[in-house]
TrEMBL record:
This is GTPase Obg. Its cofactor is Mg(2+). Residues 159-331 form the OBG-type G domain. GO terms for cellular component: cytoplasm. It is an enzyme of class 3 (hydrolase). One of its GO terms (molecular function) is magnesium ion binding. It holds the Pfam family MMR_HSR1. PROSITE patterns: G_OBG (PS51710), GTP1_OBG (PS00905), OBG (PS51883), OCT (PS51881). Keywords: Cytoplasm, GTP-binding, Hydrolase, Magnesium, Metal-binding, Nucleotide-binding. Gene3D superfamilies: GTP-binding protein OBG, C-terminal domain (3.30.300.350), GTP1/OBG domain (2.70.210.12), P-loop containing nucleotide triphosphate hydrolases (3.40.50.300). Monomer. An essential GTPase which binds GTP, GDP and possibly (p)ppGpp with moderate affinity, with high nucleotide exchange rates and a fairly low GTP hydrolysis rate. Plays a role in control of the cell cycle, stress response, ribosome biogenesis and in those bacteria that undergo differentiation, in morphogenesis control.
């Protein structure tokens, strides 16, 4: 089975909570705070593996969770950092954020890594909050949450040369002749149901990878037939070999087929359509009149295609010439990674704790992720913690924003279940 797209859920590890602890040892009077920090949550990292060829594993497992950071403890002991989770994907995998549909990374080199979800930072223990005036803080920070998102994986086969053409024109036969690939070959349309790759090694030329792309037909760019499902796999190729059945034994016109396929390429991607093409006039051994080839060559020449080779994959006629021409073209075209425009590139948002203020029945209600984190950090029944709580509200600008909204002395302010009276 060949699987070339997948959607999975990932969540990096939450940070561990900071510890609230005080030193209690014999012969040491007035032991101070010694609560350690929580450990950082584990990251999730994608790694490209040249030994993988499909995304099949992701059809069985769709949820990936990294380890949470350990909580801090007394004696200034730090919590254990969560273990990083490595996920192997095939080379040529393009990763997108599902929510924005932006491209996160293109993993096209062996062993390439990308942090797809950063683990949460561990919370600070109470020893971190000591000051000359606050010598016994009875509060600590909770760990930061990890990142979570759905991502889509899309495999785009890595090949130097792509074979394209209508079904049953001889692409699979050609690949089997020039490489050790053994694609299914039969005399009916859509024999090939998944891309096949083969390494072409002809004496006297630099070896290269060639991909047999399943039959693309008219309407492929709109999803007709196997269509757009496999057009993506020739996006990375530097040279295209366009195979046509020059014999016309199936009642098809080779020139019309050539034009239709190129129209589909143009609809799908201008850059793909503009890629160098070698036209392989296959099944020439079954051609009864050589003038048919000459007429075809003249017509495609008028469209600007001058690389036309008469060949037969069945008899090996012209095959070596075709491969040498492909190798020559490849030597003039540098290998480039997939282009990601600024518009399509995923930019992770900086993690911020936010709040909003509204007035409800005469009470000013402050709510949001900032409030949740602050209340989780402090013990509001402890005088030192309460002073810290008010200091944070002031530094964050919440008290000033309340004044701007017209709060008056004696008005009530509510943060979740905690209410206090505002005093000027």
């Amino acid at each position: 089975m060949f699987v070339d797209t997948a959607k999975i859920f990932i969540k990096s590890g939450d940070g561990g909570d900071g510890s609230i602890s005080f030193r209690r040892e014999k012969y040491i009077a007035f032991g101070g705070p010694d609560g350690g920090d929580g450990g950082d949550g584990g990251d999730i990292i994608l790694v490209s593996d040249p030994n993988l060829t499909t995304l099949l594993d992701f059809t069985y497992k769709r949820k990936y969770l990294a380890e949470r950071g350990g909580n801090g403890s007394g004696s200034k002991c730090f919590g254990k950092n969560g273990e990083t989770l490595y996920i192997k994907v095939p080379m040529g995998t393009v990763v997108r954020d599902v929510e924005t549909n932006k491209i996160m990374v293109d993993l096209s080199h062996p062993g390439e890594k990308y942090v797809v979800a950063k683990g949460g930072r561990g919370g600070r223990g109470n020893v971190r909050f000591t000051t000359p005036t606050r010598q016994a803080p009875d509060f600590a920070e909770p760990g930061m949450p990890g990142e979570e998102r759905f991502i889509s994986l899309e495999l785009k086969v890595l090949a130097d040369v792509g074979l394209l053409g209508f079904p049953n024109v001889g692409k699979s036969t050609l690949l089997s002749v020039v490489s050790k690939a053994r694609p299914k070959i039969a005399n009916y349309h859509f024999t090939t149901l998944k891309p096949n790759l083969g390494v072409v090694a002809v004496p006297g030329i630099q070896s290269f990878v060639m991909a047999d792309i399943p039959g693309i037909i008219e309407g492929a760019a709109e999803g007709v037939g196997l269509g757009i499902q496999f057009l993506r796999h020739i996006e990375r190729t530097r040279v295209l070999i366009h195979v046509v059945d020059i014999s016309g034994l199936e009642g098809r016109d080779p020139f019309e087929d050539f034009v239709k396929i190129n129209e589909e390429l143009k609809k799908y991607s201008i850059k793909l359509w503009d890629r160098p093409q070698i036209i392989a006039a296959n099944k020439s051994d079954m051609l009864f009149d050589d003038q048919v080839f000459e007429d075809f060559k003249k017509k495609v020449g008028e469209l600007g295609y001058d690389r036309v080779i008469k060949m037969s994959a069945a008899t090996n006629q012209g095959v070596e010439e075709l491969m040498k021409e492909a190798a020559r073209l490849l030597s003039t075209i540098p290998v480039t990674d997939i282009e990601i425009s600024e518009e399509d590139k995923f930019v992770p948002e900086e993690k911020k704790f936010t709040y909003s203020i509204r007035k409800e029945d005469g009470v000013y209600v402050v709510e949001g992720s900032f409030v949740d984190r602050l209340l989780a950090s402090v013990n509001i029944n402890d005088p030192d913690a309460l002073r810290y709580f008010h200091k944070v509200l002031k530094n964050k600008g919440i008290l000033q924003e309340l004044r701007d909204l017209g709060i008056e002395d004696g008005d009530m302010v509510r943060l979740k279940d905690f209410e206090f009276e505002y005093l000027l």
